[in-house]
């Protein structure tokens, strides 16, 4: 796993150098965005995988797969699985996190100045990266080549041997690829500061807390968590307590967020019902729920005033 993470981290050099060597502003900004994005989310991704290493007791991919005979790690390490899903989308520059290629603001990002085969190579690298992170998610969280626990027992393990392993791995891999496509067609692009704030202020601190929780659980019951039979009725008390506490914390965070949003909405001054469109010197159309204020009647100058003005005007202006 260390080798895979190290090789994946080198991919950012291509993006940065492509943006810098273009000699254009937009590709340069796209390359800088990609640098900050990949570095930020690689930290959260690596921390998410630490929990899997603790469960399996090894960093070898084969040992991690074999340790998921009875239970896939997407269930006991559900929090790490969610963090990895978010980080793998950010790592591959895919919507809603394709800020390095923001067409609406950067015209195409770091590959704006490239076409033909060079452009094809960029897209090939992007999609190869998608397959790579999907294969890692399958290996680390979905049991790799193994069949689902309920199906693996059918026929004395016949569906978990031979070519079946390759078939199960490919099915899981394409489920993640379908998730990438579905996500691109469903969610809009986020703002760059929101994306970086999510990585540094939410994902990394929460993953550190989760690692500490997993370490305490492993210390409390060494060797049990990786082989817990949740569906068979066996569930360690400490694991159950941790899951309940995490769910309560999530509910409390959602309630606090909703409460603050409601208080923020109340603090906002209500829009006036009727507005003067020329109050600020420029015509302003009414917002939904607003009406235009009736204009005051225009008073015309009297005939005596107009005669007096014409008498005092210069000779040339009278002519």
Summed up:
With 319 residues, the protein is an all-alpha fold. The chain has 2 domains: 2-222, no CATH class; 236-268. The chain has helices at residues 2-10, 12-21, 25-56, 61-66, 78-91, 103-106, 116-141, 149-152, 163-184, 192-220, 237-267, 303-312, 315-318, and strands at residues 274-275, 291-292.
Indicate the radius of gyration in whole angstroms: 31 Å
Broad structural category: mainly alpha
Helix content: 55-70%
Number of helices: 13
Shape descriptor reads globular
Number of strands: 2
> Order of strands across the biggest sheet?
1-2
Provide a descriptive summary of the structure in words.
The structure is a single chain. The protein is mostly helical and 319 residues long. It folds into two domains: 2-222, no CATH class; 236-268. Helices cover 63% and strands 1% of the residues. It has a two-stranded parallel ribbon. It is globular. The N and C termini lie far apart (94 Å). Residues 223-235 have low confidence and may be disordered.
Outline the secondary-structure elements.
Elements: H1 2-10, H2 12-21, H3 25-56, H4 61-66, H5 78-91, H6 103-106, H7 116-141, H8 149-152, H9 163-184, H10 192-220, H11 237-267, E1 274-275, E2 291-292, H12 303-312, H13 315-318
Parallel strand pairs: 1-2
Helix pairs in contact: 2-3, 3-5, 3-10, 5-7, 5-10, 7-9
Features of the shown structure:
2 domains; 319 residues; globular; 2 strands
């Amino acid at each position: 796993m260390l080798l895979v993470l190290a090789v994946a981290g080198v991919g950012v050099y291509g993006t940065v150098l492509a943006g810098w060597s273009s000699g254009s502003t937009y590709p340069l900004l796209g390359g800088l965005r990609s640098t900050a994005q990949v570095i930020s989310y690689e930290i959260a991704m690596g921390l998410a995988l630490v929990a899997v290493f603790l469960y399996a007791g090894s960093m070898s991919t084969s040992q991690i797969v074999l340790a998921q005979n009875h239970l896939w790690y997407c269930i006991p390490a559900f929090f790490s699985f969610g963090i990895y899903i978010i980080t793998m989308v950010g790592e591959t520059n895919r919507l809603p996190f394709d800020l390095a290629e923001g067409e609406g603001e950067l015209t195409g990002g770091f590959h704006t100045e490239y076409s033909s085969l060079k452009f094809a190579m960029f897209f090939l690298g992007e999609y190869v990266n998608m397959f790579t992170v999907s294969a890692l998610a399958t290996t680390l969280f979905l049991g790799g080549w193994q069949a689902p626990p309920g199906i693996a027992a059918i026929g004395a393990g016949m569906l978990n041997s031979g070519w079946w392993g390759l078939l199960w791995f490919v099915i899981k891999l394409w489920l993640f690829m379908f998730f990438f496509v579905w996500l691109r067609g469903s969610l809009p692009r986020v703002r760059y500061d929101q994306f970086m704030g999510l990585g540094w202020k939410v994902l990394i601190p929460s993953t550190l807390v989760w690692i500490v929780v997993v370490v305490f659980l492993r210390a409390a019951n060494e060797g049990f968590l990786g082989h817990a039979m949740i569906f068979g009725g066996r569930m360690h008390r400490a694991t159950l307590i941790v899951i309940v506490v995490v769910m309560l914390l999530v509910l409390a965070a959602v309630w606090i967020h909703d409460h603050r949003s409601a208080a923020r909405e109340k603090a906002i001054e209500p829009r006036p019902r009727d507005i003067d469109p020329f109050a600020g010197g420029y015509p302003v159309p009414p917002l939904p729920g607003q009406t235009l204020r009736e204009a005051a009647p225009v008073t015309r100058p009297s005939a005596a005033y107009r005669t007096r003005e014409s008498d005092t005007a210069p000779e040339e202006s009278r002519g």
